[in-house]
Write the structure tokens for this entry.
Amino acid sequence: MEDVLRPVIVIGGSLAITVFIGWGADWLLRRIDARHPETPLWDLLRGCRLPLQVTVCTALLRGSYETVDAEAITAHQTAIGRLLTLVLIAATAWLVIRGSGAIVESSYSRYAASAHDAARVRRVRTQVTLIQRVVAAVVGVVAASAMLLTFPAMRAVGTSMLASAGILGIVAGVAAQSTLGNLFAGLQIAFGDMVRIGDTVVVNGEWGTVEEITLTFLSVRTWDERRITMPVSYFTSQPFENWSRGGTQKTGTVLFHLDHHAPIEEMRTKLREIVQESPAWDGRDWSLVVTDTSPSTIVVRALVTARDSDDAWTVRCDIRERMITWLREEHPYALPRIATAPAVQAQVPAPAPTHPAPGHEDHFARFDNGFRKG
């Protein structure tokens, strides 16, 4: 009877204590969060409840399973202890990663709420994201190493690896040259302020917004909602356009190919009306000039400013649509035409008749009469 009750008491007591600790921690964090709503840390720490419960339950079982005298547990005591140790290490690493992520995310949220520079906020966001990934990678490697060292055979392997660490380091560096290059490139991007999450960039002729930056790759979301994934080393070795660096303000242009009779002054007046009615115009500047000419058309350039690239695109489309509509309705002669009718040939006047000189008329008449008689 004792062989049955003791395992039930140990397992049931561990589960009861785990549930109580998890509920108590969650209740305490909710109370603190209600008193301090300006600090998001306490609400974020509530996400650590599950890894905390797993860690507590595994620790309780790991410390009390040896007191159980059940035959099944005694026969596999070593295997059970090692399994509980592995689970405890993994759960502790999970709890550390989740807790550190909550702390870093809380710090970023408080900074973003009080900052006024959007570019600096995106820079801090990029750094925070990469710091979280570095911490997760380091904790994961340490946890995996600790789990491997629980096996006696791996301890001997670890000693041998330490003895030949120099050679293995060289071999690993050569084999993982690309991976290490991306790793250091990611750190350079994070702290070198080259590109940030939320920046508008143009890479390989594609326009989009940086959506995610990791230690090895960078994801760009294009205007048509495609995702371009590129290694971070590309941004440290290849030129690219960053439209968000140094400010988000943009200048957009619209080109019109028109007839030579286009009313330029009336077009300037219409452009002023269009930009003043457009909510995407930032009010800084606008202009309309003739930039080129050809035997059949002229090129008229409308220039307008906007707060960012999205507004620049919007106001350009608005100008193009309304200006063409206005020209078609009010000045249709200004639109270019292509002549397709055949050209009318000029009539060449007939040559004037020639008259013989005086004195030769009778001579030719006598010669003609004589020729006919003959």
Remarks:
- Confidence is low (pLDDT under 50) at residues 171-176.
- The CA atoms of residues 68 and 74 lie 8 Å apart.
- The beta strands are 200-203, 206-213, 217-222, 227-231, 241-242, 250-258, 281-293, 298-306.
- The radius of gyration is 42 Å.
